[in-house]
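Supplementary notes for students who missed Thursday's class. We covered one full example, reproduced here. Read the sequence, then the structure, then the short commentary at the end.
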Amino acid sequence: MTYGLGCQIRSHQGAVSTMSNPSQGETRLARRIGLGDAVLIGLGSMIGAGVFAALGPAAGAAGSGVLIALVLAAVIAYCNATSSARLAARYPTSGGTYVYGRERLGEFWGYLAGWGFVVGKTASCAAMALTVGSYVLPDYAHAIAVAAVIALTAVNYRGVRKSVALTRIIVAVVLTVLFAVVVAATSSVAAEPVRLHIGADATPYGVLRAAGLLFFAFAGYARIATLGEEVRDPARTIPRAIPLALGITLIVYAAVAVGALLVLGPDGLAGATAPLADVVRAAGASGLVPVVRVGAAVAALGSLLALVLGVSRTILAMSRDRNLPSALAAVHPRFGVPHRAELAVGVVVAVVAATADVRGAIGFSSFGVLAYYAIANASAWTLTPEEGRPPRVIPVLGAIGCLVLAISLPLDSVFAGGSVLAVGALVYVVRRRSVTSRS
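Structure (token representation):
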């Protein structure tokens, strides 16, 4: 089998289908990303989101059960990552689950996945931009957030190599800062192991709700899949890169969460507006507070950079199929990026970042992304053994886990996310009827 934009693939029903196949050469993306850079893109997206944005709200929901929620979110993320990796190796083109759902389940499910991803991850982009503003200049958080969006849109516009190079620097800085936080917390006299004890406040619903919020932090591995068209040897690289990025992220999250609980306890962590800055302060290492604030801003920038990459590639794929305006499918002749899609994402995210609330954005984003991965797992279920199907339990557990976590989120997030998906479905139906009536 030959992979690429012009390849033909056999669906689970045995019929030959054609993937998103642009007829114009200018819509092709070059394969420039190797294993190391693919892992870095996943790390850059995940680490910035979870440690600095989702840990506090999760502790508020689960109390002393936050570590259980972390493990639960990681298990579901692993199932989703495995399903996504197998599908991405089979369909190495831009679009991620938008493409998988369309090819395996039908056009509507692919469209709904793409809609959920674009809307949900736009909220994620705004949340990361606001995190930058909150740590750099809290009194001007929205203005700083908009400036960050403009700057990173400019970086992405210059090409994926520029984005990967910046991500490499960001990941190195963030891991160094988090290592310093963990060392300061675990070696402090303020650390009390009793704070890791799981008490009666850890209710099943609270743990599920916290796991749904923490899933927001693990969803960055999707960036590797949505960049599949730009990955070298995708059938080999993607299945290796996704679990590597996820495993490293889980280790980092667990270490940071344990350190934070040892020093602050569940209540202190839940009430902290800048949790890791409060951790080093309570640990007696106040000199690290400015370093942590810089690290938080850099981490959020890394996450924002990778998120914009993923959203723009999904828009590219949907525009190729005219599920979004076809003008957004253009690829820059010099930089080799979907420049119109990236500019569109930048404008929308800047507007949202100027008006949104970061905690609300996390819940809304989690709902959309969980719906996206439920469709990914359903798509993976249809793979045959010859196509690299994962063990059956993986997509089943992943799909059920996504649905359970989605409905366990705060009610306002469930209502908003469900409403947006319903609007997307309505737009699809109206568009299809319009096309049918014209034909």
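Commentary. Confidence is low (pLDDT under 50) at residues 1-26. The radius of gyration is 21 Å. If anything here is unclear, bring it to office hours.
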